[in-house]
Amino acid sequence: MWSGNHLVNRRTYLSIASVSVTAVLSGCGGNSSSDDGPESNLSEGTQATNQDHRDSDIENNTSENTQTAQNSGDDAELHGVAEFEIIRLDVPNEITQPDTVDVKLTVENTGDARGTFRGEIDIDVDGVFLPTSIQYDAEISAGERATLTETLDPDRSGFVTFRIEGIEHELMIIPEHTGPQIQGVKLVREWTEHGDVYQNAIDSAPAGSLIVIAVRYWYWYGDSGVLDISAEYETNGKEMSQRDVIQDRSKRIVRQRGWEPQEDYIKISTYGWDPGVYTTKVQLRDERNGDLSTTKEVRYTLE
Q1: Chain-centre distance of CA 36, in angstroms?
Q2: Are 14 and 20 in contact (CB under 8 A)?
Q3: Which helix (H) or strand (E) holds 187?
Q4: Which of 42, 147, 203, 233 registers the highest number of CB atoms within 10 A of its CB?
Q5: Each residue's pLDDT tens digit, 208-251
C-alpha cells in the first residue's frame, strides 16, 4: 500500500509654500491752467517734470508686475500642493528560479506641484527569504506618472504576497527542479501518521514477515493541490538472485501548496526470504510531469 499523510487608493502628500504678492504703486497727476507770467510757467514746468516721473514710475511698476506674473507661473509648482495616486502594482504571476522578479509600482501626481512620493510595499513570504517590505522614494512633477521598479532575487521557491494601500498580488516562485526530494527511507514497526518514519524506525524484522518501508520526502504541489506520486523500489540480498521491482501509486486532493513534507510507506512480503542483510532502494516519480527523485536506500536485517 502506498498512502500518506486596483483598487486605487490615494496617498496624499501636501507641500504648502507661502505666496509673495507684489503691490503695484501708481500715481495721480494734477493739472494747472494758470497763465500768470514766469512764475506760472515755472510751476507748469515743474508739474510737467513731476508728471514725467510719475509716468516713468507707472511704466516701471507695470514692467515689474508683468515679470512677477511670469515668475508666479514658473513657480506655480513650488507654491501648490502635490497629491499622489497609486495607479497599479505590476508583479508576474509566477517565475522559475533562478529568474529575478521586477516589482513595478505606477504612481501619478494628481496635484499642482512637484513633490516627493514616498511609499512602501509590504511583503508576506511563505518559505521564501526576501525582505519584508520595499521602500520607494521618487520626485514626480505635477500631472505626470512614474513607474518605480525594484528587482528582487528570491533564493527559495514558494509563494510571496505584495500589498500596498489595498492592492494585493501573489507571486509563485517555482523551483528550477520540481522532482520529489527524499529525506529518509527507514524500516519501521508500523506507519500510522506523519513522523513515524523516524519515531518507529527499527533495524531488523523477522524473516518471512510483512515488513514496512517508510519514506519521508518533500513534494512540490505548486498551486494545483494535487498529490500524484508513484514509488519504485528494489530489494537485494546476498542470497537473492532475483531483484524485486514493484511500482505503487498514490493520488489524492490535498490543501497544501508549494513545497510540503510528506510521508508514505510500502509493505513488502518477505515470505520465503532467507535470514540475512537486505537493502531496499526507493525512487519517487511525480506523475503530473514525470519528474524523478534521487534514489535513497535503507539496510536492515531479516532474522
Answers
A1: 94
A2: no
A3: strand 181-188
A4: 233
A5: 999 999 999 999 888 777 888 888 898 988 766 445 555 566 77
